[in-house]
Every structure is written in C-alpha cells, then in structure tokens.
UniProtKB/TrEMBL annotation:
Any GO MF annotation of the entry: lipid-linked peptidoglycan transporter activity
Cytoplasm in keyword set: no
Location of this chain's protein in the cell: Cell membrane
Lineage: Bacteria, Bacillati, Actinomycetota, Actinomycetes, Micrococcales
Name of the protein: Murein biosynthesis integral membrane protein MurJ
Transmembrane segments: 7-33, 53-71, 83-108, 128-146, 158-182, 194-217, 238-258, 278-300, 321-344, 356-377, 389-412, 418-438, 459-480, 492-513
Any Pfam family the entry gives: MurJ
Organism: Microbacterium tenebrionis
Topology in the lipid bilayer: Multi-pass membrane protein
Amino acid sequence: MMGIGRASAVIAAGTLVSRLTGLLRAVVLVAAIGSVGKASDAFAVANQLPNSIYQVISAGVLTGVIVPQVVRASAQKDGGHAFLAKLLTLGTIIVGSITLVATIGAPLLIDLYAPGFGPEQSALAVRFAYWCVPQLFFYGMFALLGEILNARRVFGPYAWAPIINNIVSIAGFALFMVLFGQSRAGLDGWSTEMITLLAGAATLGVVAQTVVLLLFWRRIGIPLRLDFQWRGMGLGHMGKLAFWTFLTTLAGQVVGLVQSRVITPASGENASVAASQYTWLVFMVAYSTIVLAIGTPYFTRISEHAAAEKHEDLRETARQAIRILGLLVIVATAAIAVASVPAARIFSSSADEAVLIAPVLLAYLVSLLPLAVLFIVQRTFYAYGDARTPFVYTLIQAALLVVLTLVVAVTTPLEQRAAMVALAQSVASTVQTVIAAVMLRRKFGSFGLGGTMLALGRFVLLAIPAAGAGWGLFLLMGSVDGWMLGGMLQGALGAALIAGVTGIVFVALLALFRVPELTTAIRMLRRR
C-alpha cells in the first residue's frame, strides 16, 4: 500500500521520464519528417486516429468506471481476482472488435478527419493509417491493465512502461533517417518501405509498452486468465456508468473531429495538425507530470472515502488536491509561457517556424489550471458513482467549443487558425470547469472551494513577477534573434534555463510570503 506522497513521487518520476523521452521521440520525428509540411501532417492525422478512439475507451469508460469498481471488488474474499478475470476478458473482446472495425474503415476516417487534404496527401495518410490504427488494441489493453493496477495502489508500472514505447519509436525513427534521409516533409518519394518503417515503428512501440505491463501484472500475483462467465459481475450498474462516461468522452472526440477539419486546410506552409500535436505534447508534460501524477493517487483515496461514506474526509482530500495541483500547475504555466518560443524551436526546423508555432502553445496553456481543477471535480463525481453530471457539463463545453471553432473557421486566416482553435479550446475548458464546480456544490453540498479559489488567486499573483524574471532573461539573451533559437538543442537549453529561473523566483516568493501549501508540497515529495 502506498501513501499519496510516495505514490505521487513514483508516478511523477515515471511520468516525467516518459514525457521527456516522449519529447525526444518528437524531436527525432521532426528531424525525420518535419513539423510544417504535407507529409508530416498526413502522418500526424493517421497516428492520431488510434489515440482519438482510445480516449473514448480510456478516459470515458475505464477511468470513470473501472477504478471505483475495482476498489470495491478488492474487498471481496479473493481480493477481486474473479472479477478482474471477467473484466479483462470483456475488455479484450470490446477493444479488439473496435480495432478491427476502425482498421477496415481507415480511409473513411482519414476523409472524416482531414477533408482539407488533397488526393495525394490523403492517400499517403491512409497508407500510414493502416499501420497506425492497430495501436488502438494495445492502447486499450494497456489502459485497462494500468487502471486496474492503479485501483489496487500499484502505480509504478503504468507510469514507467510508456518509456519503452518511446525508446522503440526513437530507434525506428532514427533508422528511418539513416536509410531514407531527413526532413521528408514533402509528398514526393514515399515508398512502401518508408511508410512501413515510420508507421510500423510507432505501432511497435505501443505493443512493447503493453507487453511490459503484462510482465509486471504477473509479478504482483494477479492471475492473468480469461473468464467468459460475466453474470453477477455487475454489468448493469457498470453499463449505466459506462453509458454516461462514454457519451462524455465521445462529445470531446466530436469536438476533436471538428477541430481537425478546421485545422487541416492550413497544412503546408502554416502551423497545422503536426504543429498542434507537438505543442500539445509540451502542454501534456506539465499536465501529466503534475495533474495525473499527483491527482491519480488522490482519486484513489477519494474513491475509498466515498465507498466508506466518509464525506468530510473526501471534501478535505479534494480541497487539498486542488490547492497542491494548483500551486504546481501555475508555476508550470508561467515557466512554459515565457519559454514558449525556445520550446517551440525544439519542434521546428528554423527560428521562423518556432515563432509561428509558439502562439499555439501559449493558447493551450490558458487551460492548464482549469483542467487541473476539473480533474479533481470530475473524479469526485465518479467516486460517488455519478457519471451523468460530468456528461452534462462536458456536453455544454463541447457545444461551446464547436461554436467557437466554427467561428474561427470563418473569421481567422490560415496562418493563425491553429492558435485560435487552441485558444477556443482553452476558453471552453475554463467555462466547463466553472460549471462543473457549481454542479458539484449543488449535488453534494459545499466543498469549501471558495477559499481554495482565493488561494489559487494568490498563487497567480506571485507567478506574475516570477514570469517577468524568466521573460527578462529571454530578452537579455537576445530574444528571437539570440542563441536560444539557433537550433533544437539551443532551444531546449534556453527553455530549461528560462523555466528554471521562473521556478526559482516563484518558490522564493512562496517562501517569503510563507504560503502553507509550499510546505505541504515539499513534504509530499520528501515522503518518497
């Protein structure tokens, strides 16, 4: 059994290494096929297809339904092993069937997500998709096994296994460059061997991380067997929860579809699908390392409090989680924002491209704090077995985002479209978080979030001078004409230096004003 401090440290370490190797993976991929170009956007759309469908399965059904159910099943005499065997069997059949249908329908999916592609670019994307879409099965099984391990307080393997994925992909992309050269951003000369190596390496990495998780699964003593006797495992109750969580995530994917259709016409000379994905990857370094790493153990404890009907303990855990998450994501937002141009240089072929991509990253960062708060609020609903309310406020967010994205499509020039779509997403996410917090209070009573929001406001005020220090360093180093934009490596070093200065100043201000959450955060990390 792990406490929150140790569990958070294990997940944070694994997630940080995973995200850093993921950044390296992206850098190697950019070196191979670029970040602004028709081939890079064709691969980006094809490789995103399994992720989009997987999000419906993982975030919608697994996270919202499996964790609370496994927590309850673990109290059974056999430790829930019979339940887990049935669950694993059912999940394998469902994910396998969806993967088969999606692979067969790859051409239709490409047409659906990228209507702005021309015939040659679309044909290349379809050929990539036949190799990439099968990732869906392994993503689904990885998520199913990982969420079960998380619910049983075994957090390490799920956080660390994706590193294998990144290593395998990096090796494959590097071999691609050795055999076929670099910067293959154009549509000319793509042979079957090139497509197989590039897309096959991406898929082989996902297979590898799933195999690693299976090895850990067996080592911790949970039987790995199939059981088709599903009667009595509570499918009716789980089905009701899954129905609403499925619709919740499906609404988000419909939005993603609209966004893709709006952004893809910009492919070629402007920031488009690939650039959006790379900036989202930078955003997810902060979100995953902080929100998922610290929030996941908190979710397990919130689920335990809900199952034991310890409502006041649950409220206090939720408040503490939001304060700690807020403290960390605010400094991350400030640091990445002022380092956005050097950070964008890591995923671009020139300083001009970095300046073009940086606004997309800034637009995404607007939603980092709201999404951190939403993580805890939404999982509190799940812990109480309420999946319908998250669907309601997510549907509102999805409708708003669709409207904003369509407005962007008709009012924004192609060169600004990716950034404005990202900003629309951040605005809609902020509105969603406010609505979710109001609904939480109306359904389960006051959580004392007013005081928590005031604490977050104080953190924001302290982050402003910290960001000023980081921005001042960027200007001192020559701004866009300085050494930080001289190459990918210089961009990485410059971004790290700016972020480090911002973080140091922020922590110093927290200590100066004796902010109590700083002590709590430090204590949590020291519990390791």
